């Protein structure tokens, strides 16, 4: 999409507090920029709420705020990310994404041109994902009280099948599939922030994954659970599922695809690639009998899709008395290395990568 | 509600970047604070999206970010406001509010105790409004890149009737009703910010109004349109409706209830009370025959509810040539003063009151 910005940028080169004040300037910003980019009849009613007719009564509902820095990075920007991230959260519940809201908290002084680039990117991403942005909000905070722009998108999806896709559904024996290589989003951001140069540029993996999920459902694959690998990366995702299901997960380190440059960047920065956020990657928990079929479908979208492990019954706990003070009584995610050594993949405790999404 | 904060505040007296990092601290914050306060089975699944069954396929969807300063003010706080404001936006479309999302953008260093007060207030407001907070998100931005906390809530409501409540539905002859006195929210905030003292303290009017709207619908009142009087106050609300409907609105200044202390505060600060934001006030556009019944219902909730004007056909335009350079060719909201003088109530252009909601 290459729309000409309908706001006269020469007149208002920067966002002013008054653009969030409820008066004429706000109306011009909404009418000129947001309606022009997101155009759809529901948004155009400009009512306090959009009223829509859903195809199903069973819905998925999610929200995410995006505070990523920098606003533009190789392979994406905050605008497209704000669409992909929320679309993906809906897909993780097995829903077809339908409607998004978009709420901007803008710092006074943001160049209007920057806002327009972001809004255009959101509109393009929404169109590609087949979702409509039907309601929105604009706030402007005083200079020094924000950071350029934060975007919140909430999303509604419809669940068109009888399956329950949720962590509590994971069973011993389930296979764990991954839809591609790890860590590109986080390292694309960090490479920019740290000024790292590699032979090939690392591009974010930010992308919508709902089509892959819907394809699995259409093919009749039984899906026990899905989880996208955002903040905290694969490690957090697996630990969350393991905790919710009360089961042990066993994953094979060598099966997990990581690009050479991503590996190198992680080594330079001292980061654990399994904890690095992705924005277009998910783990799928699939019953053993459906796993080959599911993998074949996922590999049609990405050749890097792979089987990385399986779900085991909960490990028997040793008594804490025996174990000493640092013993973790329920080691729930186990990583098997190339030489067969097993280590516990523990929930990260600190902030590895702030403002990554 | 007077829950004991389940996060050990002595251990983490302030919010750290790591509380938004996707690791253990974030899990503890979500599990300990948000789940404890908002408790409901849908939120407790802790999935990427909440999956819910709606009673109707016709829904209303809205979003609002709250950036009000100070965080706590007479009559309310950012937490209860974040619930009331979104509940009210759903009500303005004639919907019964059902589900909210809540997304926090927290500045590193926010006292944990402050966050807990806000979260408790949100939980209390949600309970009173009969809505559930079923999905959420937490981001932490570095010190100096935010301002304490911003909250976004998106909301889903169900439309349980066949009426269309929307600006495009307003007709000539419709009566304009108001559900109470004007300007208290804005002036409560400004009085705190400016250190103004009055004999009686001005308290915000922040409150949910959905019960009044649902009562009107249950009573069989035909509602053409509803609009809450937030940013830009009565003036913006009426101008928006007038523009959307393409009709002239005529309101009687003397009919509009404003408290004496609010008047005084506006005079001191040089503000136009008709442009001051309310958080529990709305204008209703009701066909003439249903207006008395509607007013009686609204007066049961607030004795200040009143008839303030009516909708006229579009005014015939004078030719611009005749009118001189400053003539506004479509004066759409007309205010009739006590002595019968008529003036145009124009859309505010500047930022009267930043960070009011």
Number of folding domains of chain A? 2
Class from secondary-structure proportions of chain A: alpha+beta
Rg on CA atoms of chain A, Å = 22 Å
Oligomer: homodimer
| Large-scale geometry of chain A | globular
Main sheet strand line-up of chain A:
9-11-8-12-10-13-14
What ranges of chain A have pLDDT less than 50 throughout 5 or more consecutive residues? 319-329
Number of helices of chain A: 10
Give the class-level CATH name of the largest domain in chain A: Alpha Beta
Could you tell me the number of beta strands of chain A?
Answer: 14
| Residue share in helix of chain A | 25-40%
The second-level CATH architecture of the largest domain in chain A is: Alpha-Beta Complex
CATH superfamily of the largest domain in chain A: PurM-like C-terminal domain
Strand content of chain A: 15-25%
N- and C-termini, Cα separation of chain A:
24 Å
Question: Would you kindly provide a written description of the structure presented here, covering whatever features stand out?
Answer:
The structure is a homodimer of 357-residue chains. Chain A folds into two domains: 17-159, 60s Ribosomal Protein L30, Chain: A (2-Layer Sandwich), CATH 3.30.1330; 167-344, Alpha-Beta Complex (Phosphoribosyl-aminoimidazole Synthetase, Chain A, domain 2). Chain A is 31% helix and 23% strand. Chain A has helices at 24-38, 41-44, 78-91, 112-129, 184-194, 210-218, 233-245, 260-269, 291-301, 320-323, and strands at 50-53, 58-66, 72-73, 76-77, 96-107, 132-141, 149-158, 175-178, 225-228, 248-252, 282-286, 306-312, 333-336, 342-344. In chain A, the strands form three sheets. Chain A has a seven-stranded mixed beta sheet, with helices on both faces. In chain A, strands 2-7-5-6 form a four-stranded mixed beta sheet. Chain A is globular, with a radius of gyration of 22 Å. At the A-B interface, helix 1, strand 1, strand 2, helix 3 and strand 5 of A face helix 1, strand 1, strand 2, helix 3 and strand 5 of B.
């Amino acid at each position: 999409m290459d729309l000409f910005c309908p706001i006269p940028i020469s007149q208002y080169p920067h966002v002013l507090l008054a653009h969030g004040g409820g008066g004429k300037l706000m109306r011009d910003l909404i009418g000129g920029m947001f309606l022009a980019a997101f155009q759809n009849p529901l948004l155009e009613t400009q009512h306090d709420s959009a009223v829509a007719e859903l195809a199903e009564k069973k819905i998925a509902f999610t929200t995410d705020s995006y505070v990523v820095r920098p606003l533009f990075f190789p392979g994406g920007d905050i605008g497209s990310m704000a669409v992909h991230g929320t679309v993906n959260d809906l897909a993780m519940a097995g829903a077809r994404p339908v409607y998004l809201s978009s709420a901007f908290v803008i710092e006074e002084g943001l160049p209007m041109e920057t806002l327009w680039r972001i809004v255009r990117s959101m509109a393009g991403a929404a169109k590609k994902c087949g979702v409509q942005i039907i309601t929105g909000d604009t706030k402007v905070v005083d200079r020094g009280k924000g950071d350029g722009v934060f975007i919140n998108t909430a999303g509604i999806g419809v669940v068109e099948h009888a399956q329950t896709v949720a962590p509590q559904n994971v069973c011993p024996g389930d296979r764990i599939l991954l839809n591609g290589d790890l860590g590109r989003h986080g390292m694309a951001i960090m490479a920019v922030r740290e000024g790292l140069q590699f032979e090939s540029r690392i591009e974010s993996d930010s992308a919508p994954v709902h089509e892959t999920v819907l394809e699995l459902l259409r093919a009749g694959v039984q899906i026990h659970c899905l989880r996208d690998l955002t903040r905290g990366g694969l490690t957090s995702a697996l630990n969350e599922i393991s905790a919710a299901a009360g089961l042990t997960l066993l994953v094979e380190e060598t099966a997990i695809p990581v690009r050479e440059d991503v590996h190198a960047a992680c080594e330079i920065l001292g980061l654990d690639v399994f904890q690095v956020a992705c924005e277009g990657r998910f783990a799928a928990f699939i019953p053993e009998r459906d796993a080959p079929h599911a993998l074949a479908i996922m590999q049609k979208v990405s050749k890097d899709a792979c089987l990385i492990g399986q779900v085991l019954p909960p490990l028997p706990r040793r008594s804490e008395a025996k174990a000493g003070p640092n013993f973790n009584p329920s080691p729930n995610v186990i990583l098997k290395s190339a030489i067969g050594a097993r280590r516990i993949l523990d929930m990260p405790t600190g902030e590895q990568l702030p403002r990554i999404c």
